[in-house]
Amino acid sequence: MFACVDADTLGGVQQVTHTLAQGLALRGHEVHLVGLNQTAEPFRYVQRPLYERHVLRRRPLGDGPGTTRRRAGRLLSAIGPEYAVLTCPATVSLLAGLLPPGSRSIGQYHGSYEHARGHGGLAAVARDYAALDQAVFPSPQDARRFAEEALLPNTAHLPSPLRAWPDTPSFLDVPRVLGVGRLVPVKRFDRLITAFARAGRTRGRWELHLIGEGPERDRLRAHAASLGVAGRVVFRGRVTVAEMGREYLNGAILGLTGEHEGFPLPVAEAASYGMPSVAFDVSAGVRALVLDGLTGALVPPADVDAFTAALSGLMADHARRRRLGAAARAHAAAYRAENVLDRWETLFAQVCR
User: Fold this and answer.
1) 180 and 155 in one domain?
2) Burial class (CB within 10 angstroms; exposed 0-12, middle 13-18, buried 19+) of 64
3) Domain check: are 143 and 61 in the same one?
């Protein structure tokens, strides 16, 4: 059983959860995916899900926490003993104490140690995750730091799985930089637009395509216009999972400019298509995906000048893009779904010992 706050909204945690649920169901496991809240505009990650889907709270404003807990208790009792994968502190807090006898509890934390420490999440993880059978983090360094700083005795690390593995990589010859993610302040796409505008002054054929939607769209459009690149920054909006492969095939570089990241799936997805990334070095998860100078470029957090220089260098050098991209694809093979699912099944066996 996997539990999310919002199981069907657009986001990295949700994509990972649906990928794992479908992959384990395909391997013959009975799988249930529980969302605490009903999503207003559901995003479809799997066309034909082989797992059961449940929603606890269909009217978020009308259901109090007591009602949600009662519904959760009835559902978990009906499902019976299970491996319960609780995907964030909120689901751990609500559901861990309601699991039927014989269940095994696994708490995930998809963010980075740096973000947890800076935004109050460290205390919640330290308080609630220690009593679980396993606490899972996105990178070895994150797991180690949570073990040391939050005094967790049960840490492990498992990367996020890729939804699919492309047969053919990108040729990286379309002059296009990609930014993938929700258009929200924390993703700092304004910095990506700024770096692209500066780098693009000598690279006039290049475009920046932003894939995603969100409340920052109008502000980002105005920012692009103020820098004189409105005609070369393309807002693509929401793109379905099935169509994302075409976007990566038609891109050359991925830019990652968020203030914090756990294990950013767009970097892994781009790498699977042989595409290098330029990223701010904001977490162990980013460092696990982008090996500086080998599979892409890492620059100091919020250093837009350094980001601009790294982006400009890759825009100017097709041979280097191909070289870094080939290494990125080889590195990303560890995140193929079958490899990550093998590790999950090993984890399930270990927590039963």
Assistant:
1) no
2) exposed
3) yes
Find the DSSP H helices in 130-264. Answer: 140-149, 189-199, 217-226, 241-249
CB 42 within 8 A of CB 8: yes
**Distance (Å, whole) CA 95 – CA 156:** 21
Token pair 């105005």 is at which residue?
222
User: CB neighbours (10 Å) of residue 126?
Assistant: 15
Nearest to 52 by CA among 68, 76, 73: 76
Checking 90-96 for CB contacts under 8 A at 24+ apart, the result is 90/5, 90/36, 91/3, 91/4, 91/5, 91/36, 92/128, 92/129, 92/132, 93/124, 93/128, 94/36, 94/65, 94/68, 94/69, 95/3, 96/128, 96/131, 96/132
Length of the chain equals 353
CB contact set of 336 (below 8 Å; sequence gap of 6+): 161, 162, 165, 272
In 3D space, the residue among 165, 157, 122 whose CA is nearest the CA of residue 329 turns out to be: 165
The Cα diameter of the chain in Å comes to: 65
Note the pLDDT tens digit of each residue in 301-349. Answer: 999 999 999 999 999 999 999 999 999 999 999 999 999 999 999 999 9
Residues 6+ apart with CB under 8 A from 25: 31, 49, 50, 51
Q: How far apart are CA 325 and CA 251, in angstroms?
A: 12
Q: What residues have CB less than 8 Å from 19, skipping those under 6 apart?
A: 45, 46, 161, 162, 163, 337
Query: Domain range spanning residue 293?
Result: 176-335
| Same domain, residue pair 327 and 340 | no
Name the one residue in this structure whose structure tokens are 């010859």. 173
For residue 117, the Cα-to-chain-centroid distance in whole angstroms is 19
Structure token digits, residue 71: 């519904």
Look up residue 80 and give its amino acid: G
Q: Based on the domain organization, do 101 and 191 belong to the same domain? A: no
Tell me the per-residue pLDDT of 170-200, one tens digit each, with 9 for 90 and over: 999 999 999 999 999 999 999 999 999 999 8
